[in-house]
TrEMBL record:
<dbReference type="Pfam" id="PF04233">
    <property type="entry name" value="Phage_Mu_F"/>
</dbReference>
<feature type="domain" description="Phage-Barnase-EndoU-ColicinE5/D-RelE like nuclease 3">
    <location>
        <begin position="307"/>
        <end position="415"/>
    </location>
</feature>
<dbReference type="InterPro" id="IPR041301">
    <property type="entry name" value="PBECR3"/>
</dbReference>
<protein>
    <submittedName>
        <fullName>Phage head protein</fullName>
    </submittedName>
</protein>
<feature type="domain" description="Phage head morphogenesis">
    <location>
        <begin position="59"/>
        <end position="179"/>
    </location>
</feature>
<dbReference type="InterPro" id="IPR006528">
    <property type="entry name" value="Phage_head_morphogenesis_dom"/>
</dbReference>
<dbReference type="Pfam" id="PF18812">
    <property type="entry name" value="PBECR3"/>
</dbReference>
Length: 418
């Protein structure tokens, strides 16, 4: 049995993986060094060495969360990271100053969070699956394998063996080893396990140079996710495995103040605007419906937004998000995408304009009453933002069943009309 590559791990997040990372977001920890949090402390808190300001930490946490929950690649993460560093004026971070240093730092952040969240999610699945045996599988570089990790390949031990408390992977920076479960020895053998293989002598002896057993990097002698296993499993059961739900799921448990920071940070990421633009373009290009997300999130409402909706509409929308779907993109193209717009003092909306929706939601004027939808008699609200002399107007419909404020229409005033 072969383990998925990192690209598959990132592109196919699963409930337990997402739940593990999301429960960390309620505890954003300012740290100066990478070892300010040790071992299982990483299970319940998010940190980036040297990130000590709340806004900076929130922005980076959101960028990492997006790579995990929405399966984004390292290229998008690197672009978001560059934007975050510039926006927050962050200097002095390890890797700053050279292209190689920046590439190394972003790769470490990206891969470490991908692998630990994946491992923690798998830990929850293994526990919930009640597997009798756990099997260690080596998956590091073939050219330069870590000798001890290679030696553990195929090791098959009971699920409650103390080995897993210290040797459950990843077992160091860049380690891609993994664990699979089996209920019988015969199945374990078919999965690459060897129930007759003995633990190497002195496997639990501490290496004085690292404070961990031989072959395990400093601070890696713990099982990611073990300390929050029950929380992760409970959270994962509550959300259906649908990309849109996962993209906004689990946030209700995050403290309100942090949730606001994360929502704003999410919409500040360049990749979020890019995705909205690409989504609109794919709809207008006629991409087959089954290849399109049925709904694209623009992030959660803030407490300011929910208070404004309550004031003008008398509705509780706590935990709702903003979203767009293919229907509205087509509607906007039909109503506000042609040259006739100029006669109304407006200009045609293009796919590029959708990239500005996140900025409009973060920086726009207060939400105001926009009446009701003619088609469904559903309550609507409006937000506007003027950018370079143009006023972008977005009207959202409150859809209670999906717990979302869905874009209903979108147009751009140039000042000559309404």
């Amino acid at each position: 049995m072969s383990e998925p590559s990192l690209s598959v791990v990132m592109n196919r997040p699963f409930n337990e993986q997402t739940a593990f990372f999301r429960q960390k977001l309620g505890n954003l920890v300012a740290t100066a060094r990478w070892d300010d949090l040790t071992r299982s402390e990483h299970d319940a808190g998010f940190m980036i060495a040297g990130a000590t300001k709340a806004d900076l930490l929130s922005d980076i946490a959101t960028a990492v969360d997006r790579t995990i929950t929405e399966g984004k690649g390292i290229g998008e993460f690197r672009r978001d990271f560059r934007s975050i560093v510039e926006k927050n004026g962050w200097h002095g971070w390890t890797g700053e100053g050279t292209a190689a240093g920046r590439a190394w730092r972003t790769r470490v952040i990206y891969r470490t969070n991908a692998q630990t969240s994946y491992a923690a999610g798998r830990f929850a699945q293994l526990r919930e699956g009640n597997f009798t045996f756990w099997i260690y599988r080596h998956n590091d570089s073939v050219r330069n394998p870590r000798r001890e990790h290679l030696g553990w390949d195929g090791l098959t031990l009971p699920a409650d063996h103390p080995f897993w408390a210290t040797h459950y992977p990843p077992n160091g920076w860049g380690c891609r080893c993994y664990v699979v479960g089996a209920r019988r020895e015969s199945i374990a053998r078919r999965m690459g396990g060897d129930p007759d293989k003995a633990l190497p002598e002195g496997w639990d002896a501490t290496d004085p140079s690292t404070g961990a057993p031989a072959g395990i990097g400093q601070g890696w002698d713990y099982a990611p996710g073990a300390s929050v296993n029950r929380t992760v499993s409970t959270m994962a059961e509550k959300v259906r495995h649908w990309d849109y739900q996962i993209a906004k799921g689990y946030m209700q448990g995050v403290p309100e103040q942090v949730r606001d920071q994360l929502a704003t940070s999410y919409r500040s990421l360049p990749s979020v605007g890019d995705d909205a633009r690409r989504y609109a373009q794919r709809v207008l290009n006629g991409t087959e419906p089954e290849r399109l997300e049925p709904v694209r999130t623009l992030g959660l409402l803030t407490t300011r937004d929910t208070a404004q909706v309550a004031d003008i509409k008398g509705q509780d929308v706590n935990g709702f998000d903003y979203s767009i779907d293919p229907f509205v993109v087509k509607h906007v193209q039909e109503r506000h995408g042609g040259e006739a717009e100029r006669q109304r003092g407006q200009r045609p909306v293009t796919p590029n304009d959708y990239a500005l929706l996140p900025q409009l939601l973060n920086e726009g004027e207060a939400l105001v009453d926009a009446g009701e939808s003619r088609a469904t008699n559903t309550a609507q609200v409006r937000r506007e933002l003027t950018i370079n002399g143009e006023t972008f107007v977005a009207i959202f419909e409150i859809r209670r069943k999906r717990r979302t404020l869905a874009l209903q229409t979108f147009y751009i005033r140039t000042g000559a009309g309404d």
